[in-house]
Design a protein that fits this description.
The structure is a single chain. A hairpin with a 2-residue loop joins strand 2 and strand 3. The strands form five sheets. This protein has a five-stranded mixed β-sheet, with helices on both faces. It has a three-stranded parallel β-sheet with strand order 4-1-5. It is 36% helix and 27% strand. The protein is built from eight helices and 14 strands. Helix 1 crosses helix 7 and helix 1 runs antiparallel to helix 8. It is globular. It is α/β, with parallel strands linked by helices and 230 residues long. Bound molecules: glutamine. The site of glutamine has 12 residues, from loops. This is Transporter substrate-binding domain-containing protein.
Length: 230
């Protein structure tokens, strides 16, 4: 902020395993979210210390002041806006149903009676599953990270899972998971970068300014194309 001193270092919470947004490769964090926040930091003159954790721990860590910023494929929701402030949206996503490739009896929520639905703690998927549990008559099984949730459906312990469509599309394409998406997209939302509510106007301003500059310079598109193309 113009004092000419050391750049400020912000603690940034990230989901441990959430490709193509955040993951580890050769001992380095990489992915769309990582590149975006690194580019914003460079543009706005701050430093980053990454704090990888399960998604469900991220908002609590912001609230406990253990993190300054969170970027974790986090959907902007009214519920979360009660405790965090979000940046301008940077990516469109939403939930879809996922089953094994050979599954032919589940094509929509109406087919879930008596089934087990796997979700990840603290996510919009978990929230959606709980909110519709009685209506569709399924059981919810909760996991702490996406790979465990995918595994549960792959190995037949759960019938279906809920995940953001860009994430599951990438997982299927990249790792050859024996899974497929079915039915209509269930929700549409947008990812935002979060800071603790009401106390971080200055950080949020830097994030929004940096994000806009990445969009204007074409760097945002380059980052997206690097991981998922069009
Ligand atoms: N977009 C979803 C959410 O905000 C999932 C995020 C995640 O699993 N990292 O809850």
């Amino acid at each position: 902020s113009g004092e000419g001193g050391e750049d400020k270092t912000y603690k940034v919470g990230i989901d441990t395993t959430y490709p193509p947004f955040e993951f580890e490769e050769n001992g380095e964090y990489t992915g769309i979210d990582i590149d975006i926040i690194n580019a914003i930091a460079k543009n706005q003159g701050f430093k980053i210390e990454f704090n990888p954790m399960d998604f469900g721990g991220i908002i609590p860590a912001l609230q406990a002041n253990q993190l300054d910023i969170a970027i974790a494929g986090m959907s902007i929701t009214d519920e979360r806006k009660k405790v965090v402030d979000f940046s301008d949206p940077y990516f469109d996503a939403g939930l879809t149903l996922v089953v094994t490739s050979e599954n032919t009896d589940i094509t929509s929520l109406d087919d879930l009676k008596g089934k087990t639905v796997a979700v990840k703690s603290g996510t919009t998927g978990a929230e959606f599953a709980r909110a519709n549990e009685d209506k569709y008559g399924y059981e919810v099984a909760q996991f702490e990270d996406s790979p465990s949730m995918f595994q549960e459906v792959s190995n037949g312990n759960a019938d279906v899972l809920l995940e953001d469509y860009p994430v599951i599309a990438y997982a299927i394409a990249q790792s050859g998971l024996d899974l497929k998406t079915v039915g209509e997209r269930l929700t549409g939302d947008q990812y935002g970068i979060a800071v603790l509510k009401g106390q971080n106007a200055e950080v949020l301003e830097k994030i929004n300014t940096g994000l806009q500059e990445l969009r204007d310079s074409g760097e945002y598109d380059k980052i997206i194309n690097k991981y998922i193309g069009e």
